[in-house]
Amino acid sequence: MRRKRRKWMALVLALVSGGAAGYLALGYMNRPLSPRSASANAMSHIVVASRDLPLGTVIAPGDVKQIEWPSLTVPPGYAASEEDVIGRGLITPVSANEPLMTAKLADKEAGGGLPIVIPEGMRAVSVKVDEVIGVAGFVLPGTRVDVLVTLTPGADRDEAATRVILQNVQALASGQTIQRNANGEPQTATVITLLVTPEQAEKLTLAATEGHIQLALRNTLDMAEVETDGIKAATLVRTGAAPQPAPSSGRAPRRSTGGGTSVITYNGAERTVTTF
């Protein structure tokens, strides 16, 4: 009897313990998450680009999509809905799956294209260039260049001069346009659009009209301006006094480097040097 009683007591105790453990586990699973755990797992909706979008693009419904993003790592200034970005122009290029930030978008009333990326007080001036002037195609939007101009006053080529007239100028756009040559035949010309002040726009326009311009690509981190005096064709290669032409016959005295005297005798094409 005692054994049976002990077994029943042990069985009852086991059932009670199991029930209590199950109840506690169920209560733990159903309890609300702590604020810290809830915030760590919370998700937000943000808008990202569905494809690569170039500068000046006016956002259309197919250009963006909405995805979930961990709330703790949501970038500041993000767009939360597609309605917030559709119809607004991009003032900077955006890559596919990149979050759309309000700082990268113009107002809806501003429209799209190049005008929205021109800061207040600045101007965009386009100049026609060839492959050499455009630094072999390396002048792309966002790069910085110096502008040099070469002028040849009149017909005297010795007076031709080159000088840097603009420094650290940003390229806004680069593209191609179709124009006709002197024979009326269509040809492709590269056009570079530079961001300049109104005063720089005057210099650039005059240089492109009256002279020959050249772009010099520079490091985008190099903001220093350099003072130059320019250079003229007459002083491009400096030389000493012009040597005297040798006579076709006879004798011509010449000082040697050693302090003696040398006599050069020409007999037709034969040349003889005598030093004493």
List the helices and strands and how they pair.
Elements: H1 2-30, H2 35-41, E1 43-49, E2 64-70, E3 123-129, E4 144-151, E5 161-180, E6 186-196, H3 198-210, E7 212-218, E8 231-232, E9 250-255, E10 261-267, E11 270-275
Antiparallel strand pairs: 1-2, 3-6, 4-5, 4-7, 5-6, 5-8, 9-10, 10-11
Describe the structure concisely for a colleague:
With 276 residues, the protein is α+β, with helices and mostly antiparallel strands. It is built from three helices and eleven strands, in the order H-H-E-E-E-E-E-E-H-E-E-E-E-E.
Please, could you describe this protein's structure?
This protein has helices at residues 2-30, 35-41, 198-210, and strands at residues 43-49, 64-70, 123-129, 144-151, 161-180, 186-196, 212-218, 231-232, 250-255, 261-267, 270-275. By secondary structure, it is an alpha+beta fold. A hairpin with a 2-residue loop joins strand 10 and strand 11 (270-275). The protein contains three helices and eleven strands; from the N terminus they run ααββββββαβββββ.
